[in-house]
Amino acid sequence: MSMCRIIYAILPMFLAPAFIAAAPVTITFDSSLLNGSAGQTLTFSGTVVNTAASPVFLNGNSVNVTAPLTANDTNFFANFPLLLGGAQSLSAAILDIVIPNGTSFGVYTGHFDILGGSTGAALDLIGSANFAVNVAPEPGAGSYLAAGLLVLLLLGRGRVPVNFTCLGRTNH
User: Fold this and answer.
1) What is the pLDDT, as a whole number, of residue 166?
2) Which domain holds residue 89?
């Protein structure tokens, strides 16, 4: 047997796992930008779709988010099966993002990857999606502050009548 025939006979054994592991999975968040304030936990929900005809194992994930925010991926492991069938999709909560107290206002970005492949031990990158969190002040706090400033402004200009009755006496 010639060397070329041996190489042609062995080559498919090394190339086959690369083709099998390339099962594409798409992740679509219901909303890739969530708004929250310091002290809140936000939940990103979405749909995971196996776009291949063959089943794919969802063996793990990787989450990166800008500090000081932290990620909790318990929802992914609780809500998604170990094996997603060909052309199968599933919608559920995927991950939680915790906004610690004292977090500065602004937009914080993150990235979510699903690891898996054609076997229960594969950890190939098979799907990924970006997300963002907009940390804003509490809406109620801003409303109260604005209302208080408006009252003080009107009192200062004398446009709001102030009547105090104390012990039968009226003061203006």
Assistant:
1) 54
2) 3-137
